[in-house]
Design a protein that fits this description.
mainly beta; six-stranded antiparallel beta sheet; 48% strand; disordered C terminus
Length: 296
């Protein structure tokens, strides 16, 4: 997490210097790049890039990105992480295209790798319908993957009653008077067409449409701070609505292409044993929590 609308980067190595550090950065186009530091010069992109982007968003001048990689990728250019081992981390960021960050926009931190488990859950409430969710911490984000037997719109809702009224609704489809599919954050004051929220807090991760089946993947913060969004609690029950239709444009789903269920939201503890502090100016210190999910 960094207070910029440009690029954000992390590096890992043996010392508090760029040296030959293993670098991962989100460029100004929103792409994750894996590179090797060339001394204090511009990092060189690796022939094999081993990071996988999970979340990237910029809101009000603050950029957040989450990525995964194996502890040991087998690539000699990548840093090898070991549980219990102390790691030297580098951080840097800058507004605009990827370029020299300056001393005021960079720093070092030390943390110790700790082993955690990731909460992964899956339900199949109807034939052809599958809902999977994962929870990440710091920032607290939940990622849903929803599969339904349709090539039209599909949506989910969240609330406490198991009914549409007053539910927080997100759907992927073609809004009225629009030509393309969009992910729409909305709310339902009644059992009628949801109304789009003024602030869109759901982030589209991917959408795959195959033969009579589509899979939607999206994310959101557990608490977006938006009164139109339902607050999802860690380790608590969550009522979910699901629905879909063959129409591309949002319309009534029908009686047999909808349902509701209650799930238990899991919790993932912080993945870094420590925090990273960023000295921003002589009068302002910004705390940044950096999430790196490392898979065996």
């Amino acid at each position: 997490v960094a207070p910029v609308s440009g690029w954000v980067g992390l590096g890992f190595g043996e010392t508090e210097s760029m040296g030959n550090a293993d670098i991962y950065y989100l460029d100004d186009e929103g792409e994750l790049r894996n590179a090797t530091a060339n001394g204090n010069g511009r990092p060189v992109i690796d022939e094999i890039e081993n990071g996988f982007l999970k979340l990237a968003e910029t809101v009000d001048g603050v950029t957040t990105f989450i990525f995964t990689r194996k502890l040991n990728t087998g690539d000699p250019k990548d840093y090898i992480f070991e549980i219990g081992r102390e790691v030297q981390a580098l951080w840097a960021h800058k507004d605009g295209p990827f370029s020299f960050h300056g001393l005021e926009n960079s720093g070092f931190a030390t943390f110790t790798m700790t082993e955690v488990t990731q909460s992964t859950n899956l339900v199949e409430p109807a034939e052809g319908v599958k809902i999977e969710w994962r929870v990440y911490s710091n920032p607290e984000v939940i990622v849903f993957e929803y599969t339904a037997p349709t090539n039209g719109w599909l949506g989910m809702g969240f609330g406490t009653s198991g009914t549409m009224v007053n539910s927080d609704i997100v759907y992927y489809g073609r809004p009225e008077a629009e030509d393309e599919f969009q992910l729409v954050d909305s709310h339902a004051p009644s059992n009628s067409k949801p109304k789009p929220d003024e602030t869109q807090n759901y982030v589209l991760q991917s959408f795959i449409s195959g033969t009579d089946t589509s899979t939607l993947k999206f994310s959101r913060e557990l608490d977006t701070g938006d009164t139109d969004d339902y607050i999802i609690q860690n380790d608590s029950p969550l009522d979910i609505l699901w629905a879909y239709n063959e129409s591309e444009e949002l319309n009534y789903h029908g009686n047999f292409t909808r349902g509701s269920l209650t799930i238990k939201v899991g919790h993932v503890t912080d993945l870094l044993n420590g925090s990273v502090g960023m000295f921003w100016s002589s009068v302002l210190i910004l705390a940044a929590s950096l999430v790196l999910i490392l898979l065996h």
